[in-house]
Amino acid sequence: MKPGMKRLAVAGALGVTSAALAASPAFAKSDISIQATPHTVHAGHVVKVHGQGDDDAEQYTLLVVQERSGKPGHWGRWQAVTRSFNGDARANVKATRTGELQFRSVLYSTDKHHQHAKTDRTSTPVTVHVVR
Questions:
Q1: Strand 61-71 and strand 46-55: pairing?
Q2: Residue 124 in 3-state DSSP?
Q3: What are the residue ranges of helices labelled H in the chain?
Q4: C-alpha angle 9/13/14, rounded to 5°?
Q5: pLDDT tens digits, 54-83
């Protein structure tokens, strides 16, 4: 094979490889989590809650940490504890009744004025046991 033909073959192979890489899909990173400490608390004491969430595919997001209380099968509704526009929300929640508290993070995608929110993702709830 002549040297010019080798260069042409190498250039062609590089072109095909780069075209295949350009056609592969891009993946945006997104993540959501919730933490609550301690896992068992006495009524009247404080639970520290930390939620994090982000989605690179969305320009504007709102992270909401939600709480519900009760017992399995008799849960109350989810209520917002705190909100964050930077994807990092912290709150101190006072445990008022015995039973269980559950916390979750919910990430909403919004417009630039943080209106018209659509649920992007929801974390798995974390449970805190409240004793006397």
A1: unpaired
A2: coil
A3: 3-23
A4: 120
A5: 888 788 889 999 999 988 888 889 999 999
